[in-house]
Fold 3-dehydroquinate dehydratase.
Amino acid sequence: AKLLVLHGPNLNLLGSREPEVYGRTTLAQIDADLAAHAEAAGHGLESFQSNAEHALVDRVQAARSDGTGFILINPAAFTHTSVALRDALAAVAIPFIEVHLSNPHAREPFRHHSYFSDLAAGVVCGFGANSYRYALDAALQHLSSRA
Ligand code: DQA
């Protein structure tokens, strides 16, 4: 099955954006690392970043008919605001893991609530770029246990 990685707003700036919070790894490096590891495990992986809520909703909807078996999503600021993106994931009913570089629970109170966590298969946060890798490991395990 194919894996889809979705990145929300401002994650295109990773590497230079508040590096003390988000680290110095770029989004391109994260995506290349994930694709290499998924491929080594025999799965295709596609990444998509957008700053636009509607573009992320459209990409989730497209996942229903493009063979996507699992989604990793860092909704970024939409974590705390987007009922629309939550509803899209509920609609397609593809299992997903919520990923964050930082640990939102250790930050401002407005980051403590997520519109995604209760629907997610799991949540990985606080490990910088490695959060994505740990989430990918869990996703690959999930896919192989269903194969
Ligand atoms: C984030 C945490 C969010 O609160 C924030 O709005 C982001 C990034 C993270 O990966 O740590 O943009 O999702």
